[in-house]
Design brief:
Layout (H helix, E strand, L loop, with lengths): L3 H5 L11 H8 L4 H9 L7 H6 L2 E6 L2 E6 L14 H17 L7 E11 L10 E9 L4 E9 L5 E12 L1
Antiparallel strand pairs: 1-2, 2-4, 3-6, 4-5, 5-6
GO molecular function: fatty acyl-CoA hydrolase activity
Protein name: PaaI family thioesterase
Family: Belongs to the thioesterase PaaI family.
Length: about 170
């Protein structure tokens, strides 16, 4: 029997982030579109969760956002593929942030429901994955949005629909 631990080798991944609370307080004084655009442009720090997944914002528009990440093997589950929670987190992020782009300063949101459908496995070493979220229906107390993740070749990997409560 082979010593799997010795064969596997040790890897190291360093993750750095800034205290998210000052950024969140600043964000409350900006519209969602202004806040997310400032994060995308690097004028204010992004959320710590983005550092864990290597997530970066590519496009921020009213009612629609796009983010990319290149998963590595540190995100694998025990059966050798990217954990489904990574896709769910990316989808929750783009669905929620799409809603956030429609909100004025001082108004927030909270995810209350997210349904994810996993269509294909995600593996490291196959390039970036791209998540897009778009608002389906805005409301004064609740908003509905959908999202999808595609691989570098454009193949659909996962989809989601989500509901966000609007908090004032």
């Amino acid at each position: 029997m082979t010593d799997v631990a010795a064969e596997a080798g040790t890897r190291l991944k360093t993750i750095t982030w800034q205290d998210p609370l000052p950024t969140a307080r600043l964000g409350a004084s900006m519209s969602g579109l202004e806040y997310l655009t400032a994060i995308k442009d690097g004028r204010i720090p992004g959320p710590p969760i983005a550092a864990h997944f290597g997530l970066r914002w590519e496009r921020i528009e009213p009612g629609e956002v796009e983010a990319v990440a290149e998963p590595d093997e540190s995100l694998y589950n025990p059966i050798g593929m990217v954990h489904g929670g990574v896709a769910a987190t990316m989808l929750d992020s783009v669905v929620g942030c799409a809603v956030h782009t429609t909100l004025p300063a001082g108004v927030g949101y909270a995810s209350v429901e997210l349904k994810v459908s996993y269509l294909r496995a995600i593996h490291a070493g196959r390039g970036e994955i791209r998540a897009v979220g778009r608002v389906v229906k805005e409301g004064s107390r609740i908003a509905f949005a959908e999202g999808e993740i595609r691989d570098a070749e454009g193949k659909l990997l996962a989809t989601a629909s989500g509901t966000c409560a609007i908090t004032r």
